[in-house]
């Protein structure tokens, strides 16, 4: 697709807007600087980013206390939900300023519509890949998430939601699930429509930070809403015409999962994230994609040619494994589709 050409006038207008934004940010930073210098902020303390909105963040203090809306120092870019930060609270408690980012254990990233890599959430223990009976999943999207999870080294769990809508025999979706279970991925089924419909999921959340990802409308926010009696999340009905989600959640947000016993101490953390249309993998190379298909690993390095690219080469161990049924043809087709989308086909 060719890039849309901007007229000179449009470009001029955009530059003017950007210059004005930079000027405003400078003014804000110098205001923050003045406030800092004037001692209007208290001592440095630890916190966690709960949500981010462009130039401001919600930070939860490590010590008890309410979430505080914080500004950023000019040199701090790319903070994301789940980040550990050092921040200072204003003496009048109106706001705060984040002064540094802590070390990250890991970060889940994905390219935006323009192909630029954007962090989704940091310091995560597991990725819950949510899909649903409706809107129906396409396996390629699940494979994309799995490849991304394997590349970041964060453990994935597949969650099939809305099983109340599943026909009695389960049909194709049961087959699909079975395929992933056979690969060794944990799979749980859920529904918010039945008593106890979340117990299998709940059992996997204790003591961990879990990020919920998946297409719009599969029920990520509904599940979290149900798991947290004290929170009310925004939930959106599917579009009447297309039966797809309507992109209700707009920013990733972290919630504490209370322990059922005390209701006070946090038993885990849940991060809701905005639904996506396409999970681009443009940030990965061919080798990372290949290794993201975990059942290929047994066969890699066994092709006749060392530089085999597993297309039509004689003596290709992957193609032979597909032939024998050791690699599912759908997974192999999915692999090829991903490489095609990266322009590596
Ligand atoms: N039948 C049924 N409907 C469900 C279930 N879970 C969620 N829904 C419905 O699915 C629709 C979408 O739910 P959301 O929780 O907003 O979906 P989401 O994944 O957060 O969507 P985005 O924020 O747009 O990414 C709502 O109409 C929910 O009521 C379920 O277990 N069964
Ligand atoms: Mg949502
Ligand atoms: Zn090969």
Characteristic key phrases:
binds zinc ion; binds magnesium ion; 345 residues; binds guanosine-5'-triphosphate; OB fold (Dihydrolipoamide Acetyltransferase, E2P); Rossmann fold; 5-stranded mixed beta barrel; alpha/beta; 6-stranded mixed sheet; Ribonucleotide Reductase Protein R1, domain 1; 28% helix; 3 domains
Low-confidence runs: none
Ions, cofactors and other ligands present here are: guanosine-5'-triphosphate, magnesium ion, zinc ion
Q: Order of strands in the sheet with the most strands? A: 10-9-8-11-13-12
Under CATH, the homologous superfamily of the largest domain reads P-loop containing nucleotide triphosphate hydrolases
User: What is the chain-wise order of helices and strands?
Assistant: HEEEEEEEEHEHEHEHEEHHH
Between the first and last Cα atoms, what is the distance in angstroms? Answer: 18 Å
Binding site for Zn(2+): 303, 308, 310, 316
Family: Belongs to the TRAFAC class YlqF/YawG GTPase family. RsgA subfamily.
EC number: 3.6.1.-
Binding site for GTP: 161-164, 214-222
């Amino acid at each position: 697709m060719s890039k849309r050409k901007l007229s000179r006038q449009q470009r001029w207008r955009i530059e003017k807007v950007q210059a004005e934004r930079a000027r405003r940010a400078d003014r804000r930073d110098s205001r923050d600087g003045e406030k800092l210098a004037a001692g209007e902020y208290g001592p440095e303390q630890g916190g966690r980013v709960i949500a981010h909105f462009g130039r401001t963040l919600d930070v939860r203090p490590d010590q008890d206390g309410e979430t505080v809306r914080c500004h950023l120092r000019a040199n701090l870019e790319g903070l994301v939900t789940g980040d550990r930060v050092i921040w200072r609270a204003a003496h009048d408690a109106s706001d705060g300023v984040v002064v540094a980012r802590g070390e990250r254990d890991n970060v889940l990233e994905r390219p935006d519509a323009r192909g630029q890599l954007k962090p989704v959430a940091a310091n995560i223990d597991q990725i819950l890949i949510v899909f649903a009976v409706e809107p129906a999943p396409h396996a390629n999207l699940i494979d994309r998430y799995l490849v991304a999870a394997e590349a970041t080294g964060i453990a994935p769990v597949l969650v099939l939601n809305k099983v109340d809508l599943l026909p009695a025999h389960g049909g194709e979706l049961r087959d699909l699930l079975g395929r992933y279970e056979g690969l060794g991925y944990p799979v749980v089924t859920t529904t918010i429509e039945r008593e106890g419909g979340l117990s299998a999921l709940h059992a996997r959340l204790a003591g961990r930070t879990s990020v919920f990802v998946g297409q719009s409308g599969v029920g990520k926010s509904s599940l979290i809403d149900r798991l947290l009696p004290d929170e009310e999340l925004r939930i959106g009905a599917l579009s009447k015409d297309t039966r797809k989600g309507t992109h209700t959640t707009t920013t990733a947000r972290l919630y504490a999962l209370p322990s059922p016993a005390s209701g006070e101490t946090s038993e885990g953390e849940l991060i809701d994230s905005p639904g996506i249309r396409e999970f681009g993998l443009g940030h990965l190379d061919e080798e990372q994609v290949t290794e993201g298909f975990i059942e290929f690993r047994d066969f890699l390095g066994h092709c006749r040619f060392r530089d085999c690219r597993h297309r039509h080469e004689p003596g290709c161990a992957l193609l032979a494994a597909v032939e024998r049924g050791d690699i599912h043809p759908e997974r192999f087709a999915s692999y090829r589709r991903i490489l095609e989308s990266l322009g590596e086909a």
